[in-house]
Design the sequence.
């Protein structure tokens, strides 16, 4: 999944009013302000209220549902090995979110973890350093996870003196 495709997905969702936040590897890259590794997909936390619209928008880009584990997540695929992993998040009036988990539990997304990073010099919504680190915990890290965690460590050290992410609108 290359940067141009990620930006095309974000632009299409944004143009239709579907708010999405980069998570996973591309979310770490957005916090770093640069692509740090190759990516097999793009993970997005989306506003659950706009899930149907997001699926329609992504369908127009050639994506179809490959795995449906709603309400937890959906995996979409398109030609040329393009993949999008959607995580519907129910947002409250204060901007706090909740995402279902497979075992009946929930992931929480406090409003302060929904921030803005940068890709290709432009602002993009993503999850905070702390939330990214939390999402990378609780399982044996794969090599790509270890790379992401190293970038998060670097960003944590850098943010000790200055903050590079701002809260998402």
Sequence:
């Amino acid at each position: 999944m290359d940067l141009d495709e990620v930006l095309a997905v974000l632009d299409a969702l944004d143009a239709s009013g579907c708010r999405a936040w980069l998570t996973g590897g591309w979310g770490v890259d957005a916090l770093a302000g640069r692509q740090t590794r190759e990516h097999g997909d793009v993970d997005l936390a989306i506003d659950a209220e706009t899930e149907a619209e997001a699926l329609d928008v992504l369908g127009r880009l050639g994506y179809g549902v490959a795995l449906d584990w709603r309400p937890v997540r959906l995996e979409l695929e398109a030609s040329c090995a393009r993949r999008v992993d959607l995580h519907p998040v129910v947002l409250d009036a204060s901007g706090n979110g909740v995402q279902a988990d497979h075992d009946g539990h929930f992931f929480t997304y406090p409003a302060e973890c929904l921030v803005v990073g940068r890709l290709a010099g432009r602002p993009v919504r993503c999850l905070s350093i702390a939330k990214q680190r939390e999402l990378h915990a609780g399982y044996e890290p794969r090599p790509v996870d270890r790379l992401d965690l190293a970038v998060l460590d670097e960003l944590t050290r850098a943010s000790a003196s200055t903050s590079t992410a701002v809260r998402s609108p």
The first helix runs from residue 3 to 15. Helices lie at 3-15, 24-32, 51-60, 129-135, 143-159. The chain has a mean pLDDT of 94. The beta strands are 20-23, 42-47, 64-69, 73-78, 82-91, 97-100, 106-109, 114-119, 122-127, 166-167.
